[in-house]
Design brief:
globular, 8 helices, 17% strand, 6-stranded mixed β-sheet
Length: 354
């Protein structure tokens, strides 16, 4: 009878060590979906799931960001100046020097793009201006070129998305935010303002602002803001941030504070003055300097924090997930569920973006 060899004794696998650069949380736990609330299984050692945030940051830093902002309002309300002040650089279509410019007979759409870099983060900013809006004697249907431009950018993105050999990263020219400038009359909204905002709010994120608010006294400004909010609500104008898009209670509470403060009464200026031994952006008057970034003088700082520091990404997501998806669904439905594929243009023939 042959002797049986003793079973081979294998060494116990070692638990992977934590990377020296990582500071892990307590031991990871895994709970079974059907365990009925039983004790979770404990996973020994460090996995590294928390590094996904760094991975995403590294990837997005390489690609960069796009942000497209449109300004709509009458001439002389400081649209270009306010955008320059928001991003602290000359990003509007006009230079800082004053030049005579003839008012166009119809509403024109002009855009200019810049690459802004801050803290290693690059953002391609496109500012779309609408010279000629509301400046004519007859302003009937003056919103049509604006609405048409917004829809054209959705169509352009949809065509790129539906191509068989589409680009890895589709250029995003869609309008993410529309700043609508309200004249500081102190009375009420004009009928033109109501009609335009009502139409634009169905296709783009509309953010109403009261321009040149330093022309109003604090009492007039508060009364005007309340009157504008009431008129917007009565007219059914759903400005950004929309109530139905609040994802949770935290978002709802934060956005309710913003909605109660809107429309922001702002002042824009790209000129610096010496005030209390420091340089500030402001508008000089006979009785002093209106400081743009001073919350006691205007609400520019609130607008900037809202647009850039807290809601910029959400503006982009609402544009893609709500407005663009609505346009896309309608276009596909109009074409029987299939969008016509775009063929490459023949050599020597350029494809129009319109």
């Amino acid at each position: 009878m042959s002797e049986m060899a003793p079973p081979e004794v294998r060494p116990k696998p070692a638990i992977p060590a934590k990377p020296s650069h990582a500071v892990p949380p307590p031991a990871s736990t895994l709970s079974s979906p059907g365990s009925g609330g039983g004790p979770p299984f404990t996973l020994l050692g460090y996995i590294g799931i928390d590094t996904i945030i760094q991975q995403m940051r590294k990837k997005t830093m390489k690609v960069g960001f796009d942000f497209n902002i449109m300004t709509v309002g009458h001439s002389g309300l400081g649209k270009s100046t306010l955008v320059n002040t928001l991003f602290k650089s000359q990003v509007s279509r006009r230079s800082s020097a004053w030049t005579f410019e003839k008012i166009p007979r119809t509403v024109e759409i002009k855009s200019v793009s810049h690459v802004i870099e801050e803290g290693g983060v690059k953002m391609t900013l496109t500012v779309i201006d609408t010279p000629g809006f509301g400046d004519q004697i007859n302003n009937e249907n003056c919103w049509e070129p604006v609405s048409k431009y917004i829809s054209e950018q959705y169509e352009k993105f949809l065509k790129e998305e539906m191509n068989i050999a589409r680009k890895k990263r589709i250029p995003d020219t869609r309008v993410h935010c529309c700043l609508y400038f309200i004249s500081p009359t102190g009375h009420s909204l004009r009928q033109l303002d109501v009609e335009v905002m009502k139409r634009l709010s169905t296709v783009v994120n509309v953010v109403p602002v009261i321009a040149k608010s330093d022309t109003l006294t604090p009492e007039e400004k508060n009364e005007f803001k309340q009157r504008v909010r009431k008129e917007l609500e009565t007219s059914g104008i759903d400005f950004y941030p929309q109530r139905e898009f609040d994802e949770d209670m935290e978002d709802k509470n934060e956005n309710n504070k913003i909605r109660e403060a809107m429309p922001f009464a702002v002042v824009g200026s790209d000129r610096e003055y010496q005030v209390n031994n420091k340089r500030v952006l402001g508008r000089k008057t006979a009785w002093g300097v209106v400081e743009v970034e001073n919350p006691n003088h205007c609400e520019f700082a609130q607008l900037r924090d809202f647009l850039i520091r807290s809601h910029l990404q959400d503006l982009k997501e609402v544009t893609h997930n709500i407005y663009y998806e609505t346009y896309r669904a309608k276009r596909l439905n109009d074409n029987g569920g299939l969008h016509p594929l775009t063929c490459p243009a023949p050599t020597g023939v350029s494809e129009s973006n319109v």
